[in-house]
């Protein structure tokens, strides 16, 4: 078997560069691109370890040391927590990318009957790796940033109605600034399918949603516990559906101002 060492070094450099760039974007590290390039060059040279006659344990230690060195070169050292987080995201990005590339290789390089796989003579080549690697990492970065933003606004809250406590998962939506014009009270919204109590009294107020203006039922609750704070002057608006994953209640931005 012929091994083209120059192509392996180039491919390893490109992959390491993309991984380090992913870490920088996800964690918003303010680092120079030249540091990332130099760090990727160090990582690219690490492929030469595969040609040394050393056992797997020593090889793993060498790889870990090189990864640690790459992180220090790319992002500098501020404290141990900062460095370990950088290292963790480097390995997470590597696992995501490696897993997807392995899946592509299985799909295109092997045929299978049931759970029996056999080689069909194809293989993911150098060009395919270069094309697919940035696409995979781009999707990973985008999804990671979306998850970090969305789930940072998730909260566990407690609603009290008729002296009974009910626990919900809520989302703080900066777009919800609904105020009852009559009482001047902020309105939080609940998915009607998630209501755990019988509503005895309600009234209607105008509401502007994604489908236009409408009237919604609002209920005066006893209190709301949000971020260890108690809010008494809150109305609970009832809407048909909340489409956010795992969310029962949409909080009002005005709660932060209070």
In short:
It is built from 6 helices and 11 strands. It has 258 residues and is of the alpha+beta class. The strands form 2 sheets. It has a 9-stranded mixed β-sheet, with no helix packed on it. It has a two-stranded antiparallel ribbon with strand order 1-2.
Helix/strand layout:
Layout: H1 5-26, H2 33-45, H3 56-75, H4 80-109, E1 110-113, E2 116-119, H5 126-151, E3 154-161, E4 164-172, E5 187-191, E6 203-209, E7 212-220, E8 223-226, E9 229-231, E10 235-239, E11 249-251, H6 254-257
Parallel strand pairs: 4-11, 5-10
Antiparallel strand pairs: 1-2, 3-4, 3-8, 5-11, 6-7, 7-10, 8-9
Helix pairs in contact: 1-2, 1-4, 1-5, 2-3, 3-4, 4-5
Largest sheet report: 9 strands, mixed
Name the poorly predicted regions: 112-118
Q: What is the overall silhouette?
A: elongated
| DSSP, total strands | 11
Provide the number of structural domains.
Answer: 2
H/E topology pattern? HHHHEEHEEEEEEEEEH
Q: What fraction of residues sit in β-strands?
A: 15-25%
């Amino acid at each position: 078997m012929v091994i083209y060492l120059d192509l392996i070094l180039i491919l390893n450099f490109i992959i390491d560069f993309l991984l380090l760039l992913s870490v920088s974007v996800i964690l918003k590290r303010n680092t120079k691109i030249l540091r990332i390039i130099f760090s990727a060059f160090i990582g690219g040279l690490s492929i030469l370890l595969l040609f040394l006659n050393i056992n797997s344990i020593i090889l793993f230690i060498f790889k870990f040391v090189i990864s640690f060195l790459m992180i220090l070169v790319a992002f500098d050292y501020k404290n141990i927590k900062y460095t370990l987080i950088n290292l963790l995201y480097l390995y997470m990005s590597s696992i995501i990318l490696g897993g997807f590339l392995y899946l592509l290789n299985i799909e295109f390089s092997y045929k299978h009957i049931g759970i029996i796989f056999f080689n069909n003579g194809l293989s993911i080549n150098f060009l395919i790796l270069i094309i697919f690697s940035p696409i995979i990492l781009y999707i990973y970065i985008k999804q990671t940033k979306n998850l970090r933003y969305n789930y940072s606004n998730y909260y566990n809250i407690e609603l009290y109605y008729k002296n009974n406590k009910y626990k919900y998962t809520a989302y703080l939506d900066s777009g919800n600034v609904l105020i009852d014009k009559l009482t001047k009270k902020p309105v939080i919204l609940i998915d009607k399918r998630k209501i755990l109590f019988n509503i005895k009294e309600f009234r209607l107020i105008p509401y502007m949603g994604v489908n236009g203006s409408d009237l919604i039922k609002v209920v005066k609750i006893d209190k709301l516990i949000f971020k260890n704070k108690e809010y008494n002057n809150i109305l609970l608006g009832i809407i048909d559906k909340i489409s956010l994953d795992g969310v029962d209640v949409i909080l009002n931005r005005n709660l932060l101002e209070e």
